[in-house]
Amino acid sequence: MIQSRLFTKTRKEAPKDEVSKNAELLIRGGFISKEMAGVYNYLPLGLRTLNKINKIIREEMDAIGGQEIHMSVLQEKGIWQKSKRWDKTIVDNWFKSKLKNGTEVGLGFTHEEPLANLMKNHISSYRDLPIFPYQIQVKFRNETRAKSGLMRGREFLMKDMYSFCKTEDEQHKFYEKAKKAYGKIFQRLGLGDITYLTFASGGSFSKFSHEFQTITPNGEDTIYIEENKRIALNKEILKEKENIEDFKEKKLVPQKAVEVGNIFNLGTKFSESQGLYYLDEKGKKQKVWMGSYGIGPGRVMGTIVEVFADKSGIVWPEAVAPFKFHIVALDAANKNVRMEAEEIYKKMLGSGIESLYDDREAPAGEKFADSDLIGIPYRIVVSEKNLADGTLEIKNRKTGEVKKVAKEKILNSLLQ
Ligand code: ATP
Ligand code: MG
Prior knowledge:
alpha+beta, Rossmann fold, five-stranded mixed beta barrel, five-stranded mixed β-sheet, elongated, binds magnesium ion, proline-tRNA ligase activity, protein biosynthesis, ProRS_anticodon_short
């Protein structure tokens, strides 16, 4: 992508009311814009990163048998009344509205009920199970506090997978598979070392659920870490410590963290309330066992910014960076520099290597500051000085390490 054509520009300041580090940097870099508190737009750079996060999530969901769908956001009241979750004393963060004829509707904050209802069309026999549909879709929650940028939106993306199984045992086996898939996702996203499998309350469904909590000082949760086993306990169930073998008599260390994912065994609550059953081999009616598995791709993006940013700006892990290389032409008015930079850009384009080419005629200091802020992993500097000695500089955004590479070798060395 050619930077002078990118319609977003970097900004020196974020909006005054923006207090979170992730939103401040993402807005300044032109990745997102703020519509209102807790509501953000993804702009070209931001969408590239979001799509990379989603691709990793999709690949791991597909690898455990996921089938992607896309459900409606607009929800009918009746379906939710069956599980009692329409009631505002039970769920207080609904956005509700009315049709012109007065019928109440809501904007989905999760999808257990409509999916269990939908599955009545597709599940009737033991042969139809197990199945694992999932979606990456927008959710609405009227959150009280929305000051954490992408980490807590009122309109936000969620990857939500749901499992439909024949028996409790089949459900528990899939739950363990999903747990492993989640581990892989956070590893691939570059968050593996600081993300802990955390025991949390199972709500009204089961004794425990598991959260994936990423350590960050700006996290809203507190977790207690057992470092040897790389697992943790959410503060809310700390009193259970002595009842869980893994934590018994262990020294636990408190840390601030953000919940990037959450997996639940749901039992048969939602299937039964929607009237979803199947017939077993003997033709006997049986309950369907469910689980749900959430990740917030937007929250993940915000978390990545929070944990890796340095004083100069964002530092993207390679797997989710909007581009791998930032080609920065200094002295861009110089014809030779331009030709050289364009040649590298075109070669990369032809080889399928993603790069952002800063062709703007601007002072070097400004171009470097923008490049640091945007946080692309490798910066290639093309300048008169480099042209003269036949080399190019490649700077690693994360480590600051600068390598000089002979210009003829540049593509070969980049491809390694
Ligand atoms: P929290 O406790 O942080 O409010 P939750 O437990 O209500 O989250 P879930 O219902 O388990 O969240 O949602 C699944 C995933 O969706 C979460 O693990 C998180 O990554 C993401 N998520 C939840 N709420 C938000 C939000 N308001 N903004 C962005 N992502 C969110
Ligand atoms: Mg949770």
